[in-house]
Write a structure and sequence with these properties.
Blueprint (H helix, E strand, L loop, with lengths): L1 H32 L18 E17 L2 E2 L4 E2 L1 E11 L4 E14 L6 E15 L6 E20 L6 E24 L2 E16 L8 E14 L17 H15 L1
Antiparallel strand pairs: 1-2, 1-4, 1-10, 3-5, 4-5, 5-6, 6-7, 7-8, 8-9, 9-10
Length: 258
């Protein structure tokens, strides 16, 4: 009985000594590595996943390449005003799936004094944002799309001039754009962009030959709208608990358990 009593009385003291030893070792390790050694910084709030992102844009579009076999576009059409819009849905903190569309008003070139035209394009692609949650938002995108270009010619005829339209249907096999937006306020940004679209006309009026490669280069301004205000989501309160606090909490829990 005397031996059993001695064991029972010494067990709490041994447990307390072990707990103090564990806590002291953790504190010494933190002190050796520095004051921030045991701190896990919480990730910033995700301000893109699930967000619907809208952009309107306007700029100058310059075509190049061919309209048809042996017919450079520079002989028929020149650049002009272009405007369009994008709508996207955030897939992750840095990635957006985006649908886009734009229309360019093309003017006559030196080789065709009575020509004008327009080019409509619809595309789908991915946008990669280099950062999120900052006032400056750089991005780059890649996609593919459909293009419809119309060439209008005016001809002088007795009585009244007549016009004729030729419609070209093409596939944009690469739509590469980059730019950056500045957000003076949380949901609204303004920025610059440059875009290069390369493709081929698969359907051309009066011609059944091979594909005719073309390209469009566009630069301009855009307005970006994020209807969900930035910074409204806060990280979990449990994220980033210092290791020292965790050890102390574990020690307190062990004492309460005893």
């Amino acid at each position: 009985m005397t031996a059993a009593g001695w064991v029972l009385s010494s067990s709490p003291a041994l447990a307390q000594t072990a707990d103090r030893g564990t806590t002291t070792a953790a504190e010494e390790e933190d002190e050796e590595l520095g004051p921030e050694a045991g701190t896990k910084r919480p990730a910033g709030p995700d301000e893109r996943t699930g967000h619907v992102l809208l952009q309107g844009r306007a700029g100058y579009s310059q075509p190049f390449g061919s309209m048809a076999a042996g017919q450079p576009v520079s002989e028929m059409l020149s650049g002009g005003l272009a405007f369009g819009a994008n709508v996207g849905i955030g897939l992750s903190r840095v990635t957006v799936l985006e649908a886009s569309g734009s229309y360019a008003l093309l003017s006559q070139a030196g080789g065709c004094n009575d020509c004008s035209g327009g080019s409509l394009d619809l595309g789908l692609g991915f946008v990669y944002h280099i950062a999120q949650g900052l006032a400056i938002d750089p991005w780059i995108s890649y996609g593919v799309g459909y293009r419809r270009t119309a060439l209008t010619r005016s001809e002088a005829t007795p009585g009244a001039p007549t016009t004729s339209d030729q419609v070209f249907h093409g596939l944009d096999v690469a739509r590469i754009a980059l730019g950056g937006d500045f957000y003076p306020v949380a949901p609204l940004g303004v920025g610059l962009f440059a875009e290069l679209d390369a493709g081929t006309y698969l359907s051309r009026p009066g011609e059944s030959g091979g594909p005719a490669p073309y390209g469009f280069f566009q630069v301009g301004l855009r307005l970006a709208l994020d209807p969900v205000p930035r910074g409204t989501r806060t990280p979990s309160a449990s994220a980033g608990t210092p290791r020292r606090m965790a050890v102390q909490a574990a020690g307190a829990g062990g004492t309460a358990h005893r």
